[in-house]
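Posted in: Structural Biology > Protein-Ligand Complexes

Title: Requesting predicted complex, magnesium ion in pocket

I'd be grateful if someone could produce the 3D structure tokens for the following input. Sequence and ligand are given below.
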Amino acid sequence: MVCTYIINTPFVDLKPLLSLLFVTRHKRIRGFKTSMGVYPWIMATKSEIKQKLIDDLPTLEGKKILIFGDVGVDEYVKGQVKRISPEAPVPVVEVESIQKVLGLSANVAANIIALGGSPILVSVVGEDADGEVIKALLQEKGIASDSLVSDPGRPTTSKLRVMSGQHHIVRVDYETKSEIDGNLLQKIKSQLEKWIPQCDGVIVQDYAKGIVSQASCQLVMELAKKHNKKVIVDPYRSTPLEYYQGAYLMTPNRDEAFDLAKQIPNHQVWGDVDKIGAQLMEKIQSEKMVITLGSEGMKIFNGGAPLHLPTFARGVFDVTGAGDTVISAFALAIAAEWSLEMSGYLANLAAGVVVAQVGAVACSAPDLKQYIQNHF
Ligand SMILES: Nc1ncnc2c1ncn2[C@@H]1O[C@H](COP(=O)(O)OP(=O)(O)OP(=O)(O)O)[C@@H](O)[C@H]1O
Ligand SMILES: [Mg+2]
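-- Reply #1 --
Done. Output follows.
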């Protein structure tokens, strides 16, 4: 049976897909290779997609992904409040536990290794205690820290959250947002020149803490182009789009996409994700784009009508870090030469795994395989 999964399932918007029906018979767009040949999307059955995802998962293993961007530590101080301070009208937290975890781009590195890839983290840490914490936490996960640059002039970014039960009482940030200077750029350049030729793909993870400057980002683009590597960018909402010119793919969430589009002259489109995606692609001269839509999944722009993949999440407990999982899965799948659409299925499924867990946890390759087997 040519089960027209796409037509019979609520997983995919019918409108763009039906428009594919009118594509000429010979023009096999959105195809993906299977052992049986190249299938256009309109022919793909759900079980074919599922089988292909499972069969191709091992191809992600060992893919080297260079991650460039800001790193940080997330610290959780948890305890109980039993009284108000005599010094000021504030609660006193009696500390019961302290936990430090990898944050910002370091969490993307954690996601890459959990999915079976091999991350190379190029970033800057301060010469301080939290800089050492990041290195130790990376080491615990088997991630090398020799591609990190240390700078005595910058504190390591750290966000300390004080919690009492489920109540978030206060957050304390240690950080600088000042842009890297020429000296630091040179140190970063040596690392990029060393590692980009060896990697299978590049992620730029911008949190606007100063590491992703126009000069550093464009250096990444140049080196990646020279060595024929694809760059995937998780953008920051107010970074000038020029920084990202040359990216293969950008993965903003919906709000970020709308904010970024405001930089485009004559931008007059409100509420229409498809038009925003088209405008952003034109602006950064990319032919591909993914806009993540939270509980509504994601839109994939790859020529023709955008493809909507609704979320595959079964339960939602904590959406923290889902974006990091999405970009990690895309980077690995693209490095393994998967089609953008199959990469989207993978990323959406991996995000489904992490939103069902508490905290910014990474999705492991075995968990993902099991999830695909049981829930897709
Ligand atoms: N509430 C939700 N229910 C189901 N799935 C979700 C939900 N929120 C996020 N997801 C999944 O996670 C993916 C990424 O989510 P989102 O669009 O919120 O990214 P993001 O805002 O960049 O995340 P982050 O805050 O981690 O950077 C979505 O494409 C979807 O698969
Ligand atoms: Mg995000």
